[in-house]
Amino acid sequence: MTTVTFRRNEKAVSTAWQPSTAAREVREPLRYLAPNWFAVVMGTGIVGNAAATLPGRFPGLRGGATVVWGLASLLLIVLVGAWVLHWRRYPEEARGHGRNPVMMQFYGALPMALMTVGAGTLLLGKDVIGTPAALTVDWILWSAGTVIGLLTAASIPYRMITRHHFDPDSAFGGWLMPVVPPMVSAALGALLVPYTPAGQLRLTLFVACLAMFGLSLIAAFVTTTLIWSRLLHHGLPPVGMVATVWLVLGPLGQGVTAAGALANVSPSVLESNDANGFQMFSLLFGIPTWGFAMLWLALAVAVTWHARKSMPFNLTWWGFTFPVGCCVTGSTALFQHTGADLFAVTAVGLYALLVAAWAVVAVKTLRGVLRGELLGAAR
After folding, report:
1. Distance separating alpha carbons of residues 49 and 286, to the nearest angstrom
2. Which domain of life is it from (predicted)?
């Protein structure tokens, strides 16, 4: 059994993300490709997906969102292909990610990347490739993402329990990554419910989404409690991990989104009284959870501002994108169900923040790739 302290976690993060310019590393970038790279797809895809349902219609918004969906799709194809080559050429390095107590958390990025692009295909890509083709792509990516996500939600905590020992100051936002994919499955699976044949098949999909909603919700709340305790008792995480504080917004915003999405499709599955009850649940759960998300957003902003001068750029900065996008879609869902302008204004404001964060992080990532700094082994 391996003893892992938070200081060792810091070293592991450094090993995973810090730059190197050694000539051999530049020549062999695939050797150091890790699962956290799929966060790039997540953070890019959510920019398009959030725009597709944003309250109000702004000139050029849907066209721009469709372009972003295309970019996310291309990134997914490239990264999946590169990751397959990585496993074939460097199997020992690839298996090492699963043994690393920090990097193994980011296996959850792959299923969320798959489902994000799948949902974008149905929401935006249908304008390009047609609804039948978009629906087929979404079914394939959602199904693959759901299976992989359920595996990460069970296997990563199991490995943490049986193969490592974590000190009280070890918890960080990355611990949420393996358990959030089922929540994404619930939210994005709701989009497929109307396209599922009525009867038992549609009911089964709806119930499965609801079960995955609960699975991820409870696991995320437990993990968030550990992260909150770590921050209060041990202070800020190392500067290279500050951005992971934002990851807590992911399950919160995605939970509100999932509740609203399942409420939207409940009339096609449940009796009217039950569907009305589900509509009420989406508000009774969604509004308080949204309130806590806004509190955490304020804390995340304050913590980041406090550490801004010493934060080195690394791939954890993509934590500034997808979680914020989840809060955008959650706010949009509450606006749809309540008509309260508060949620519409918040959704638009957070979307502006999302686009700004994405632009900054995307430029820094591209620069790091071109310079060979992000595809080297870190020290």
Report:
1. 20
2. Bacteria
